[in-house]
Amino acid sequence: MPKILIAAFGKESLTYVRRSRQMGLHVRILDCVEAHHGQLLRWFGDDILQVNGHRSDVRKRVAEEGFDAAIVHEDDNFVRSALITQSVREAGVQHVMVVTKDPVRHTLYRRCGAHHIVVANSVEQAWMKLSSYLPSFATA
After folding, report:
1. At what angle do helices 55-65 and 78-90 cross, to 10 degrees?
2. Over 70: is that where the pLDDT of 5 sits?
């Protein structure tokens, strides 16, 4: 079963996880930010991939899991989102997708290794665009 990593720390993660599972993907949720740990644990339990917030730790754990794809949803700290994107890509994830509200950040995320950058103002709008990149994984 194809594996996808979700790096989203707000309510948007609930949508990404639900919709990815509906597509037949094995889903794990990246938990590398202490401030969000409790909420992610309550929402997703054993499906979280808990990692210290250091880039080397994220790269190592993500590489061990062998993900086919990742969705990084930019939160209020775009620098952290960029570092997560870079770490996930360096861990060997084949398709890294980033969701941002700011079209100016397209180049930043591309330089960090993102394959697809989706500019969207809502999680529903983002999913509509993201889902067009996912069918190849769901049927693999």
Report:
1. 50
2. yes
Residue type (1 letter), 119: V
Domain boundaries, the chain: 3-138
User: Is the separation of the CB atoms in 95 and 137 below 8 Å?
Assistant: yes
Q: Which of 111, 24, 119, 118 is nearest to 68 (CA)?
A: 24
- CATH of 3-138, picked from 3.40.50.720, 1.10.290.10, 3.40.50.300, 3.30.2010.10, is 3.40.50.720
Reference 99, options 43, 115, 27, 56; nearest CA is 115
Which residues, 6+ apart, have CB-to-CB distance to 94 below 8 Å?
68, 69
Q: From the DSSP assignment, how many helices (H) and strands (E) are in the chain? A: 7, 6
pLDDT tens per residue, range 46-70: 999 999 989 999 999 999 999 999 9
